[in-house]
Amino acid sequence: MAITEAHAGRRYPPCDPYQVSAAKIAEFATALGDDNPRYRGYSPIAPPTFAAVVSAHAWDQLFGDPELELSVDRVVHADQRYTFLRPLRAGDVVIATLVIDKVRMRQDSELVSATVDISDRDAEPVCTAQATFLHAHEVPA
Amino acid sequence: MKATVVEGVEIGTQLPSLAVRFTRERLVRYAGAATDFNPIHYSEHFARRVGLPGVIAHGMLTMGTALRVVTNWVGDPSRVTSYFVRFTRPVVVPDDADGVEVQFNASVAAIEGSLVTVSIEATCGGQKVLGVARAEVDLGMRVPHLDHES
User: Fold this and answer.
1) In this prediction, what percent of chain A has a pLDDT beyond 90?
2) In B, which residues are within 8 Å of A87 by CB distance?
3) What's the pLDDT at A72?
4) ipTM of the complex model
5) Low-confidence stretches of chain B (pLDDT beneath 50)
6) Which residues of A touch B132 (CB under 8 A)?
7) Which of B38, B63, B78 lies at the smallest CB-CB distance from A80?
8) CA torsion angle for B26, B32, B37, B41 (degrees, to 10)?
9) A80, B71: Cβ pair inside 8 Å?
10) Which of B35, B65, B87 sits opposite A56 (nearest CB)?
11) CB-hemisphere CA count at 13 Å for B100?
12) Chain B partners of A90 at a C-beta cutoff of 8 Å?
């Protein structure tokens, strides 16, 4: 059975803890071409969109859910919203949890909205990542 | 990095713009850094097989790069409280030394207390690649040199 509106509300188990490292922050900032000094040194914070690195693990759960029959090859990232309560910092151990908010069925595709909550080891929220994915039924010719 | 205080900010204030070249090297770097290894971001044959005109940049690379306009301006990235982007057009990155240039312009769209909403426009080859890009930053309460706190 493929994805339907009824999958709204489906919540996945929390992902394995992710440890934010200074090296990964520097690597990510360099990939963005960003030389902001806050991303370097002994106690860097992460660029805001570093949250994508953490939420990607939760997305894997969504796209890997056999019941939904989603094919990553046919998924387009339509929009992305982040709400930051505080920056991610080197040394943080954070856990991502994904819930499907809404599924909209269209003739040749589905629009899937999902929220990833990222919280720290004390269960304090750090960031929320809300995404909408367009899942096309067929690859265009 | 330039310090900004709320007093000097009004609706319509332009932020310093940014032009960034996306090359295949940058895409590979971003793929590794973000652990996003979708082959549409490095394999021409795969990208074409799924109906794309060629290898395209990660939407999140465009989103992350666009935010540099805002974080360069405020100095302290932890002042960003929210960020929303709608991806409308892929950025096709050719396999050559020059890649493709993406231009980012931004201006203040709204102010509510110390919360400032910045609207960012991202264009490539004269066409908008992000339908909407809005970041909200908390500039704090009229404290000069706010960028230098840690």
Assistant:
1) 90
2) 77-78
3) 85
4) 0.95
5) 1-5, 142-146, 148-150
6) 79
7) B63
8) 0
9) no
10) B35
11) 21
12) none
Mean pLDDT of A1-14: 94
The CATH H-level (homologous superfamily) assignment of domain B6-148 is Hotdog Thioesterase (3.10.129.10)
pTM of the model: 0.93
Question: A133: which 2 tokens?
Answer: 């994915």
> For A122, how many CA atoms within 13 A lie in the half-sphere containing its CB?
3
Nearest to B65 among A33, A52, A56 (CB): A33
pLDDT for A27-77, tens place per residue? 999 999 999 999 999 999 999 999 999 999 999 999 999 999 998 888 899
Tell me, yes or no, if B97 comes closer than 8 A to chain A by beta carbon.
no
pLDDT in tens, A89-106: 999 999 999 999 999 999
B77: which chain A residues are within 8 Å (Cβ-Cβ)? 36, 38-39, 45, 47-48, 87
CA separation for the pair A18, A96 (Å, rounded): 8
Enter the CATH code of domain A5-136: 3.10.129.10
Alpha-carbon distance A6 to nearest alpha carbon in chain B (angstroms): 25
All structural domains of chain A with their residue ranges: 5-136
From the number of C-beta atoms within 10 Å of its C-beta (0-12, 13-18, 19+), residue A19 rates as exposed
